[in-house]
Design brief:
The chain is of the alpha/beta class. Among the domains are: 148 residues, Rossmann fold, CATH 3.40.50; 65 residues, YebC, transcriptional regulation domain (Alpha-Beta Plaits, 2-Layer Sandwich). It is 37% helix and 25% strand. It contains 15 helices and 16 strands. A hairpin with a 4-residue loop joins strand 9 and strand 10. The mean pLDDT is 95.
Length: 404
């Protein structure tokens, strides 16, 4: 008999419980053992919950930590520092841990893997990237037999929902954001989603695994979509293209580049077909070539499904993977990376000629106090630094990469 504790009974916690209970007989048949959810940690003891009478409901984590019969702790609180403490303490107590907490895994990637390796315990976090998409386990398997060359992906369903509707319905960013919040796609404070932070954390996790290294959050160039306006949509459509927030990293002999940024993609491009709240992630291995993964990036049952797969992996195999062994170090090449960029400047008409002279655009258009530029071979940071030097406020410009 294996015993499981769930920390947090929000949307994902409920989804996990429902899946494990619905499939309990089938899972036990496959693992050739029995299991039970023996405890859940909640903040409100008074709230009615549809749980089996054998499940202990507590608001005291210590009761779970000190229970030697609990084998697996599933951390689904969503909290950063408290979540880290729960995961760290559980590993140190000899318990295997599953989590969906991307913020904790991203920030404490190295230290938590060190603790898991030291204690000989499993630390699995499939649901931290891509919701229900199985990406982390396949990636861990492929790095044994492939050198991973690059990763690209639409990693945030909120941004993809907003951008999809912007281009399909031609209504304002603000209106769509309010709809996304009402439907539960976006938080009351949407900063982490729309400014690219959520995607950055996911890219940090994937890239660190893929390249067998540790890429810090600060080493990923991160930009969002919050300053996009209708005129950007019109101009990008004029290019027979659409816009996606793409996370991208690439490893070469010289080093790596890693970024999250608005990216203009041709309408015939694969990522242009990924619509609404769906996510898609691809990576390239030197043996396998390109692999693409597609599915729901969030949601009660898709994310609960990913957590359940990790739990089953532990029940089946005691799935320890030492990602700290013989780690490599690579040079960050973001400062020298160049590409084709689109820039829109509103108002500030006295700056249009200066920008044109500085970066020599291959395309330039001016209309109604708005200037549109396309630069062939430019560095994003240099563009932003110059725009800032000219005194242009962030709300008055939008910058996007063209292609990837």
């Amino acid at each position: 008999m294996k015993k499981i504790a769930i920390l947090g009974m929000g949307t994902v916690g409920q989804g996990l419980y429902e899946i494990l209970m619905e499939r309990k007989e089938k899972i036990e048949e496959v693992i050739q053992d029995t299991f039970e959810i023996s405890a859940v940690l909640v903040s409100n003891l008074e709230k009615e919950r549809n749980l089996a009478p054998t499940v202990k409901i507590t608001n005291d984590f210590t009761e779970i930590l000190e229970d030697e019969e609990i084998d697996i702790v599933v951390e689904l609180t969503g909290a950063l520092e408290q979540g880290y403490d729960y995961i760290k303490s559980s590993l140190e107590k000899g318990k295997d841990v599953v989590t969906a907490n991307k913020s904790v895994i991203s920030k404490y990637y190295d230290s938590l893997h060190e603790i898991a390796a030291k204690e000989g315990r499993s630390l699995l976090y499939e649901a931290s990237v891509g919701g229900g998409i199985p990406i982390i386990k396949p990636l861990k398997e492929e790095i044994l037999i492939n050198d991973i060359e690059s990763i690209q992906g639409i990693l945030n369903g909120t941004c993809n929902y907003i951008l999809s509707r912007l281009f399909q319905e031609k209504i304002s960013y603000g209106e769509i954001l309010k709809d996304a919040q009402r439907l539960g796609y976006a938080e009351a404070d949407p900063t982490a989603d729309v400014e690219g932070l959520d995607s950055m954390r996911k890219l940090r996790i994937l890239s660190s695994i893929a390249y067998h290294t540790s890429i810090d959050e600060e080493e990923i160039e991160t930009y969002g979509i919050s300053t996009i306006i209708k005129e950007d949509v019109d101009y990008i459509e004029h290019m027979d293209s659409t816009l996606k927030l793409l996370g991208m990293s690439k490893l070469t002999e010289e080093g790596y580049v890693a970024s999250v940024e608005p990216t203009i993609v041709d309408k015939s491009d694969y990522f242009a077909t990924v619509d609404m709240a769906f996510n898609s992630i691809s990576f390239v291995g030197h043996n396998i070539g390109p692999l693409k993964f597609y599915g729901y990036g969030a949601g009660k049952l898709p994310t609960g499904d990913a957590v359940a797969r990790d739990v089953i992996d532990i029940l089946l195999t005691h799935a320890t993977v030492n990602l700290n062994h013989d780690k490599k170090e690579f040079k960050n090449l973001n400062e020298s990376a160049k590409g084709q960029y689109y820039l829109r400047i509103s108002n500030n008409t006295n700056t249009f000629r200066k920008i044109s002279d500085k970066f020599q655009p291959i395309e330039f258009k001016e209309k109604n106090d708005i200037a549109y530029f396309v630069f062939k071979n430019a560095n994003r940071d240099e563009i932003i630094e110059y725009v800032d030097k000219l005194g242009i406020y962030p709300r008055d410009f939008f910058l996007a990469k063209v292609g990837y």
